[in-house]
Design a protein that fits this description.
It is a single chain. The chain has about 280 residues and is an all-alpha fold. The chain has one domain: Orthogonal Bundle (MetI-like fold), CATH 1.10.3720.10. It contains 15 helices and no strands. It has helices at about 1-35, 40, 55-65, 75-105, 115-120, 130-140, 150, 160-170, 175-180, 185-200, 200-215, 220-225, 235-240, 250-270, 270-284. α1 crosses α14, α4 packs across α8 and α13 packs antiparallel against α14 (about 250-270). The protein is globular.
Length: about 280
């Protein structure tokens, strides 16, 4: 039994290591390509070790963008800033609206309460791509094109987050609500002082998911922005990649790809503990 357990242990870890290598190897090649020159990339063999141009390539990408002769693109710093503002606005906005929606559905008795909840839940069947045309028309009529408000507000509602917060609020004992009422707490005081603090792990878990969701948005920013200075990092990478007989400056493209991965990775790593704990508590 001990030998079988040991063999299973090592086989499991061997499988995990092989899987990590398969995932990490393309990222490693991308990083290597971002530290060498254009000639080293286009002339075989492809390098597998980092080159000496790390600072030069990343500085050019961040503050200059694609060099002349290889197309045009805003500085990557601007693209990262746009994506960060959009991702933060979407994630924070979704959490605030979902908290308030779940609070109203669980703790207020009004006609059609369950009907409205299921209407919100049914919007899960209508992704952005399905309602993209009317949403764009409304944003254009309101003058939200090429603006952060236009990037954020149409994507700010979340049926998933509302559902998760509702399920969590239903697990809170009624005695806690009665105790707050006896102490003279108003509904918003109960929400602010009790519900929000005990929901912090759920908020952290959803923040990670929603931040990555906002960061990876492509279709909506592509439709909404015509000004290159308002492009997001995902749009910027797509525009840098050459098509047809065009030439791309691959060190800048690869450096931009690595920079695009940094903020989501930092968010996941820094909030990993709260993310796992929030998912486990939501499941309970």
């Amino acid at each position: 039994m001990v030998e079988k357990k040991k063999s299973g242990y090592w086989l499991t870890h061997l499988g995990l290591i092989i899987g990590v290598l398969f995932i990490f190897f393309p990222v490693w090649l991308t990083f290597v390509a971002s530290t060498v020159t254009q000639d080293e990339i286009i002339q075989p063999p492809f390098p597998v070790l980092p080159g000496p141009h790390f600072i030069e390539n990343y500085t050019n990408a961040l503050f200059n963008g694609v060099p002349e002769g290889y197309g045009k693109s805003p500085p990557v710093f601007r693209l990262l800033l746009n994506s960060a503002i959009m991702a933060l606005g979407i994630s924070v906005g979704k959490i605030i609206i979902s908290l308030l929606s779940a609070f109203a559905i669980v703790y207020f008795r009004f006609p059609g309460r369950q009907f409205f909840f299921w209407i919100i839940f049914l919007t899960l069947m209508l992704p952005v791509e399905v309602r993209i045309v009317p949403t764009y028309e409304i944003a254009a009529n309101l003058g939200l094109l090429n603006s952060y408000a236009g990037l954020i507000f149409p994507l700010i509602a979340s049926a998933t987050a509302t559902f998760l917060f509702r399920q969590f609020f239903l697990t809170i004992p009624d005695e806690m609500v009665e105790a707050a009422r006896i102490d003279g707490a108003t509904p918003m005081q109960f929400f602010k002082d009790i519900l929000v603090p005990i929901s912090r792990t759920n908020i952290a878990a959803l923040f990670v998911i929603l931040f990555i969701y906002g960061w990876n948005q492509y279709l909506w920013p592509l439709l909404l922005t015509t000004d290159p200075s308002m492009n997001t990092i995902v749009m910027g990478i797509n525009q840098m990649i050459p098509g047809g007989d065009d030439y791309g400056h691959w060190p800048t493209i690869m450096a931009t790809s690595i920079l695009a991965m940094v903020p989501p990775v930092v968010v996941v790593i820094t909030m990993q503990k709260f993310f796992v704990k929030g998912l486990l508590e939501s499941e309970k």
